[in-house]
Amino acid sequence: MPDYHIPKQEFKIISYEEIKPYTELAPDLESKVIIALAWLTGARIQELVNLEGKDFLIDRENDRVVITIRALKHGKIGYPTFSFSDPFISNLIVPFVEGKQGRLFSRGKRRYQQILQELNMKIHGFDTSKWITFHYLRHSRLTFLARELRAFPEELKSWTGHRSQAFEEYFAPRRVERFKGKIR
C-alpha cells in the first residue's frame, strides 16, 4: 500500500466568505451545489458526482434544516453521516435535492474541475496562489475538523478512506495548534 502523500503547502481553512463568490458565479445550480458540498463535506469530487437524491435525508425542525448524506463511500470504506444546519444549505442544496430521483449531477468530475478552474480565473485572475481545487476544499474541511477537535484521527481516516500512519501524523499537529492559540 502506498504511503499517504503529505502536501508541501499548509491547507488553510476556507471560510464561507471565500467560497461564496464561487457559488454565486458558478454557471448553473448543479455547479453551485457541487462546490458547496465539496466545501462542506470534504468528500472527493467523484464521490459527490455519484450522489443520488435518495442519499439525502432532509429534516426541518426548530427553524433550521439539517441535511444528512448517507452514502458517501469510497470502495469498502464507509463514511459516517454528515449533518448540516446552515442557511447556505437550506437556500441552495435543499431546493436542488428535493424531489430528485437518480443521480443528482449530470456531468463528469473533469467538467466540474474545469468549471472550478474557470471560476478561479474570474475571481483571482492569474494569481494561482489564491486558486482553489476540489482537493484543496477537501483538505480545508479536514483541517477544520482537526483544529476544532470536531473529529478524532480515526474518524478522519474513516471519512477520507486513508489508512496510513502518515495521515495521522499529518493531522496530529493541527489538533495541537488549537491549544497553542495558533489557529489561523
Short characterization:
The chain is mainly alpha-helical and 184 residues long. The chain has helices at residues 16-25, 29-41, 45-49, 87-97, 109-124, 134-147, 153-160, 165-180; strands at residues 56-61, 64-69, 73-74, 77-78, 82-84.
Essential attributes:
three-stranded antiparallel sheet, hpI Integrase, Chain A, two-stranded antiparallel sheet, mainly alpha, 184 residues
Give the SSE map.
Elements: H1 16-25, H2 29-41, H3 45-49, E1 56-61, E2 64-69, E3 73-74, E4 77-78, E5 82-84, H4 87-97, H5 109-124, H6 134-147, H7 153-160, H8 165-180
Antiparallel strand pairs: 1-2, 2-5, 3-4
Helix pairs in contact: 1-2, 2-4, 2-6
Helix and strand content put the structural class at: mainly alpha
Rounded to an integer in angstroms, the radius of gyration calculated over CA atoms is 16 Å
Percent of sequence in beta strands? 5-15%
- Large-scale geometry: globular
Which residues sit in consecutive blocks of at least 5 with pLDDT less than 50? Answer: none
The total beta strand count reads 5
Count of DSSP-assigned helices: 8
The description of the largest β-sheet is: 3 strands, antiparallel
Q: Return the CATH topology.
A: hpI Integrase, Chain A
Query: What is the rounded distance between the termini?
Result: 33 Å
How confident overall, as mean pLDDT? Answer: 77
How much helix is in the residues?
40-55%
Strand ordering within the main sheet = 1-2-5
CATH superfamily: Intergrase catalytic core
SSE order in H/E notation?
HHHEEEEEHHHHH
Q: What's the level 1 CATH class?
A: Mainly Alpha
- The CATH architecture assignment turns out to be Orthogonal Bundle
Count of domain modules: 1
